Amino acid sequence: MPDTRPPCPPFTAETALRKVRAAEDAWNTRDPERVALAYTEDSEWRNRDVFLTGRTEIVAFLRAKWERELDYRLRKELWAFTGDRIAVRFEYEWHDAAGQWYRSYGNENWEFDANGLMRRRFASVNDLAITERERRVLPPAGSSAGA
């Protein structure tokens, strides 16, 4: 029986927003294995200049990411949707081991299979070094603030 990750396409405004919130909540756990379950076994990714294929590569990528990006907190915003695709805007804050804070922001394009698993994820990401004073207080994972 194939993995299923509702809501499944075709998306409505309500189901697309639920998909975005579920992704935000999962990523804020910083649990690579849990996050990877939302993707097809052969999912294709572009994250910045890194190209990945499959859950094994996704898990390794996320482990390294969250070892480097400390106290990571993400917020996603539904930008557009149609059929089996969703576009989001996002921002997250994190700091490195030396204590330098960053705000990373950008856009993601997602494509899903019929079972609601993401088969393609293309992310464009920019990083901005910020001071402690410039940090934004992002809402906790699962919050409806900013939705």
For the structure shown, list the relevant keywords:
single chain; 147 residues; alpha+beta; Nuclear Transport Factor 2, Chain: A; 6-stranded mixed β-sheet; 42% strand; globular; disordered C terminus; DUF4440 domain-containing protein; DUF1348
Structure description:
It comes from Streptomyces cinnamoneus (Streptoverticillium cinnamoneum). This is DUF4440 domain-containing protein. InterPro entries: DUF1348, NTF2-like_dom_sf. The structure is a single chain. The protein is 24% helix and 42% strand. It has helices at 13-29, 32-36, 55-68, and strands spanning 39-47, 50-53, 70-82, 85-95, 101-112, 118-130. The longest helix has 17 residues, at 13-29. The chain has one domain (13-134): Nuclear Transport Factor 2, Chain: A (Roll), CATH 3.10.450. Mean pLDDT is 93; it is low at 143-147.
Amino-to-carboxy terminus distance: 34 Å
What is the helix fraction of residues, given as a range? Answer: 10-25%
Under CATH, the topology can be stated as: Nuclear Transport Factor 2, Chain: A
From the helix content, strand content and strand pairing, which structural class follows? Answer: alpha+beta
Query: What portion of the residues fall into strands of 2 or more residues?
Result: 35-45%
Strand order in the sheet with the most strands: 2-1-6-5-4-3
- The CATH class is identified as Alpha Beta
Which descriptor suits the 3D outline? globular
Unreliable residue stretches: 143-147
Number of strands: 6
Estimate nothing, just give the exact number of structural domains. Answer: 1
- CATH architecture descriptor text: Roll
Q: Summarize the biggest pleated sheet.
A: 6 strands, mixed
- Radius of gyration from the alpha-carbon trace, in angstroms: 15 Å
Structure annotation, total helices: 3
Average pLDDT, to the nearest integer? 93
Organism: Streptomyces cinnamoneus
Protein name: DUF4440 domain-containing protein
